[in-house]
């Protein structure tokens, strides 16, 4: 962030939103080559397994980062909002949440559930990126923590593309395997609408607005970094690090 940006006149809420959406258009991980291969049916089953296994750690860590933010929120209204997100991901003891639905995906891909949840096959870069996200939400301001969730502005498009492409291209997936994604088509817009309204209202100075923009760039970068690691390990040059998951025949 440049000094002149910090000290400049505040952006209008509309201009702040425009700049946030521009970050997504430039940096969201839907643009990554690995996702294009995944959605285009160009990956092997083992490569899809590697993606699902590594992504599990991200999905399982979302409730941890949301719980850490919940503890710092100052009003009942904000806490109720973030408590709903915890239920969406952890479930309520009756209806499965997103973490359980992701395990249904890894089950459907033929991965042993105990192996997935053990994290034994995780790429180091996945662990570092996800842990950095949890730490960011724990350590930065509430404003930045909320802003880091704004990648959900862009997720419905990638979800639709992913489900359509994978069902069309891979005979080893089914609508039941991909059941994680259906609720996210309504949950993500609800989540992002709340977070967007919050940052537009609460980021009043130019410096605060630059922090919001920086938080979204950070989140896009760590999502991109996870796919960089997958691409390097399983696509090109296919060099998974010691101890990481190795698909059959690799």
Produce the secondary structure layout.
Layout: H1 3-7, H2 13-27, H3 33-39, H4 45-70, H5 76-90, H6 98-108, H7 113-118, H8 124-139, H9 142-147, H10 155-169, H11 181-202, H12 206-234
Catalytic activity: 6-(2-amino-2-carboxyethyl)-7,8-dioxo-1,2,3,4,7,8-hexahydroquinoline-2,4-dicarboxylate + 3 O2 = pyrroloquinoline quinone + 2 H2O2 + 2 H2O + H(+)
Pathway: Cofactor biosynthesis; pyrroloquinoline quinone biosynthesis
Organism: Caldovatus sediminis
Q: CATH superfamily name?
A: Heme oxygenase-like
The CATH topology corresponds to Heme Oxygenase, Chain A
* End-to-end distance: 44 Å
Report the total helices. Answer: 12
Instruction: Give the CATH level 1 class.
Output: Mainly Alpha
Instruction: Compute the number of strand runs.
Output: 0
Structural class: mainly alpha
- Average pLDDT reading: 95
CATH architecture: Up-down Bundle
Number of domains: 1
Rg (C-alpha, Å): 18 Å
Largest sheet: none
User: Would you list the SSEs in sequence order as H and E?
Assistant: HHHHHHHHHHHH
Estimate percent helicity.
Answer: 55-70%
- Strand residue percentage: under 5%
- Taking pLDDT < 50 over at least 5 consecutive residues as the criterion, the unreliable ranges are none
Categorize the overall geometry: globular
InterPro entries: Haem_Oase-like_multi-hlx, PqqC, PqqC-like, Thiaminase-2/PQQC
EC number: 1.3.3.11
Family: Belongs to the PqqC family.
Catalytic activity: 6-(2-amino-2-carboxyethyl)-7,8-dioxo-1,2,3,4,7,8-hexahydroquinoline-2,4-dicarboxylate + 3 O2 = pyrroloquinoline quinone + 2 H2O2 + 2 H2O + H(+)
